[in-house]
């Protein structure tokens, strides 16, 4: 058996190559679930513990025992920026008066970008998005209003106050969400904050 990586990743579908063997091999593991993908000659192993012990048997005979460390999935890089809808709206025939209103002109974009190696080797386990966060409008350094969007998106047009030039938007991220190979959502704490200034 040869691992595709030096370590396994917890709660992810790790693929190990297995050689062609005569006779029926049986695979089992402690600290993980194991499935044999015969057409691709791969062992699909999903760690549930920090240490995984993999056993290979032919009949009652133990052929191999391998121990692996399992690490948590790497945190994604959270990015946050202001998108300017002015040009897009004008190109689409939008009303200039509407475009000049900061609440309608600007949008806050949050993105969770997975680590490059993780995304390349385990793309179906590296699907991230920003989960819970808080947006606070600061004017003159003082908080004006705070909101906690429920759906992971920030619609500035829904704010209860009208934004002004030079207002600051304090975005505080509490967690990110990862969708695994089964389509299950896993929340991971991720404390980050960003300050964005409303342009003139």
From TrEMBL:
Which superkingdom does the taxonomy of this entry point to? Answer: Bacteria
Q: What is this protein called?
A: Gliding motility-associated protein GldM C-terminal domain-containing protein
Q: Which residues form the Gliding motility-associated protein GldM C-terminal domain?
A: 109-192
InterPro entries under this entry? Motility-assoc_prot_GldM_C (IPR022719)
Any Pfam family from its record, for instance, is GldM_4th
Q: Output the lineage of the source organism.
A: Bacteria, Pseudomonadati, Bacteroidota, Cytophagia, Cytophagales
């Amino acid at each position: 058996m040869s691992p595709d990586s030096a370590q396994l990743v917890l709660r992810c579908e790790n693929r190990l190559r297995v050689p062609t063997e005569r006779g029926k091999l049986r695979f089992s593991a402690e600290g993980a679930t194991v499935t044999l993908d015969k057409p691709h000659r791969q062992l699909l192993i999903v760690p549930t513990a920090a240490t995984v012990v993999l056993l290979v048997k032919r009949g009652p005979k133990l052929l191999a025992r391998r121990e692996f460390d399992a690490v948590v999935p790497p945190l994604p890089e959270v990015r946050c920026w202001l998108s300017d809808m002015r040009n897009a709206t004008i190109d689409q025939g939008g009303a200039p008066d509407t475009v000049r209103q900061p609440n309608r002109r600007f949008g806050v974009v949050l993105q969770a970008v997975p680590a490059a190696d993780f995304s390349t080797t385990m793309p179906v386990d590296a699907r991230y998005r920003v989960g819970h966060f808080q947006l606070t409008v600061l004017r003159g350094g003082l908080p004006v209003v705070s909101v906690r969007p429920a759906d992971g998106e920030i619609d500035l047009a829904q704010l209860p106050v009208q934004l002004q030039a030079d207002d600051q938007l304090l975005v505080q991220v509490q967690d990110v969400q990862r969708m695994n190979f089964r389509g299950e959502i896993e929340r991971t704490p991720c404390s980050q904050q960003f300050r964005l200034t409303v342009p003139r």
